[in-house]
Design brief:
The chain is mainly alpha-helical and 491 residues long. It has three domains: 130 residues, no CATH class; 194 residues, no CATH class; 50 residues, no CATH class. The protein is 39% helix and 4% strand. It is built from 17 helices and eight strands. The strands form four sheets. A two-stranded antiparallel ribbon has the order 1-2. The chain has a two-stranded parallel ribbon with strand order 3-6. The longest helix has 21 residues. It starts with 21 loop residues before the first helix and ends in a 10-residue tail after the last helix. It binds zinc ion (ZN). The site of zinc ion has 6 residues, from loops.
Length: 491
Amino acid sequence: MKKAFTFLSLIIPGPKSPKGNLDIFLQPLIDELKLLWEEGVSTYDVSKKKNFQMRAMLHWTISDFPAYGMLSGWSTVGKLACPYCMEHTKAFTLTNGKKQTWFDCHRPFLPEDHPFRRNKSAFRKNKAEYSPVPPRLSGEEVWERVSKLPRIGECEHSQFLSLLKGLGVPHNWNKQSIFWQLPYWSKLLIRHNLDVMHIEKNVFDNVFHIVMNDKKKTKDNLKARNDLKKFCKRRKLEVDDDAIDETNMPTAPYVLSKEKRKAFCEWLEGLKLPDGYTSNLSRCIDTKKYKLFGMKSHDCHVLMQRLLPIAFKDLLPVNVWNALTKLSQFFRDICSSFVKIEDMIQLEKNILEILCKLEKIFPPSFFNSIKHLPIHLPYEAKVGGPVQYKWMYPFERFLYHLKKKVGNKARVEASTYHVNTKVGSLGLNLNVDEESIGKDLPEVFNCNTGYSPSEGQFGYLTEKDYNVAHRYVLGNCELLSNFERYGFNFS
Ligand SMILES: [Zn+2]
């Protein structure tokens, strides 16, 4: 997915999100997609030098979880937020926290003879779990349900609501998505993707806030401990009935002490990573409160997959470290650029046990809807292939690239038009500003890999440095790579 081939149609709707009304903005796109599928459009084929009838289809949509609700028509808030489990979910509302939790929702996915199913003390208090695996609906089955739903703009608001309520089963449908107008939509195995980038960041953030005991963001507070007392059997973590604040809250094994947090921050500050591997992590460390802040998705990605198991090795108890390491391993495996079906089946089993182990460690308040979603990621990778083609990194990076070009923030739309006209010139190397690059330079300089760590200063190269630079240029010119077969080796 190169920048030159990423097209962006922007809607700047104003201060409010269009929410379910997004379908109105999507109508022109759907009309064109229908034309592309049913009739096709006449297109010039450069290789054959003649016209052909091009047909195209929409493969799937890629969005974060709130936008998933806007696109699919299945609202991603509330107890029925999971678009796969639907009404079969075991999510419930916490008495004190007043929020929905997906705690103890994963045992139904385990084999019937799994020991976790019989366990009445580690999960919900005095509750064994013998329910069957929630069914996964096919496209046709989903269509059967949504075909009775009203479409946006089709009827009056009151009639719209009465049609939604009249279905007779608990559901989270808030409309019939406009995508169902596409003739092939019900035949697709995956219509909307769960975004691994956002899920990984959210899971990492929550794990990190709870382990680093970030008072403002942690999910382990007084309300959480009161809920723990109500729903679980963990005497050591329970608070007294008359506790009014968190001062006398028993320390949990998954929370790091101040000394350990200090050790972690110092370790991270002194860490040397390859150039461009992450942003400067030492800038994200608060050395007074010993916590991290302002981490971008990619920093969380690296910390989650590479650094977390090493960082917490000697700081957390073995069972907590073990579960977090397996979670880290899961995200590393799911992001693999080469996917085998048998590996994904194995990952489906692994993530079940990992989530169950996390349920045995963390309080119920930790498990919001996003913590449940990893359970469905191996299925999507099994059907749709490597996650690199279905996650939001390329689009977020493209948006970052566009945002940098906005000159006048009061008139964003004008700046965007300027960028689009630039991006529209296909075939040019768009990673660089054309004005800043001389036309005669070898192509090795026409890319933006690497950067100078400082402003740089004028100086002369020694003969050795000159030779190294010379060989680097020769070794990285595509033009000269043809000569390698004649025995020239420039690197
Ligand atoms: Zn689910």
